[in-house]
Design a protein that fits this description.
232 residues; alpha/beta; Rossmann fold; 7-stranded parallel beta sheet; 15% strand; binds adenosine-5'-triphosphate
Length: 232
């Protein structure tokens, strides 16, 4: 891990300056299926950053990985079930309504146009996602529309030999949360969160071999998986 990165291990919670635009968190992913790793990350980042809401944005056709096992509609329905009891969490299906690959830059651009400066955007991601960000479509432009807030994830480390990524972090990492309010965009912040070693890949594998993934995801999502015989 590069030494210049600033870590915050305590969830202090940023106090937004008076009259500053609210910050909206954007949680992209395949959510195949959604699990407590996603939900806990969203909750902790929402509290640490004082986010006004977190939007869960399921990817229809992710460009950088195997295509999801369940349909886009099923993944969105599982997200809806998982977030139903949290007024801070919203489902945003814009990537499911677009044709072609689900590029994050297009999502940021469309949200930016829609919000017209009334709120600012924080793209939330786990450390494994940050590790691969330099392969994303137009990755250098992401910060023109949003801050990037990265949550630690068990087993995820940044590659030591990616100079483009190191330079990106060196240039944009902010050392304190309040900077995410004073700057409109262009900041990267890394936040330590509760380590939950849960992944959708492992949940799918457990279901395939007939084991129960219980206690790693909401019961409502597991009921849905069983009802539609997903991943078995
Ligand atoms: P898969 O195993 O299928 O790759 P996943 O569990 O990594 O799936 P994604 O939908 O790909 O889930 O992840 C969406 C976002 O949530 C990514 O930014 C990822 O880094 C983050 N994330 C997922 N699980 C965790 C976790 N346990 N802790 C921290 N971040 C997580």
């Amino acid at each position: 891990m590069p030494s210049h990165l600033h870590f915050t291990s305590m969830l202090l919670g940023a106090t937004p300056p008076a009259n500053s635009a609210p910050l909206i968190g954007l949680m992209g992913g395949t959510f195949d299926p959604i699990h407590f790793g996603h939900l806990r990350m969203a909750q902790e980042l929402a509290e640490a950053l004082n986010l006004s809401e977190v939007r869960f944005i399921p990817s229809a056709t992710p460009p950088h990985r195997d295509q999801p096992t369940s349909s886009a509609k099923q993944r969105a329905e599982m997200v809806a079930l998982a977030i139903a009891d949290n007024p801070l969490f919203k489902l945003d299906t814009r990537e499911l309504e677009r044709e072609g690959y689900s590029y994050t830059i297009d999502t940021l651009q469309s949200l930016h146009e829609e919000l017209q400066g009334k709120a600012r955007l924080c793209l939330l991601m786990g450390m494994d996602a940050l590790a691969g960000i330099t392969s994303w479509h137009r990755w250098q432009e992401l910060l023109q529309f949003a801050h990037i807030v990265v949550a630690t994830r068990p087993g995820a480390v940044l590659p030591a030999d990616n100079l483009a990524l190191a330079g990106f972090l060196q240039t944009h990492t902010v050392s304190s949360l309040p900077q995410l309010y004073t700057q409109a965009h262009n900041g990267i912040y890394i936040q330590c969160i509760t380590a939950l070693d849960i992944s959708a890949t492992h949940i799918r594998h457990q279901l395939q071999i007939g084991q129960s993934p219980r206690y790693q995801l909401p019961d409502s999502v597991l009921d849905y998986i069983h009802r539609y015989h997903l991943y078995s």
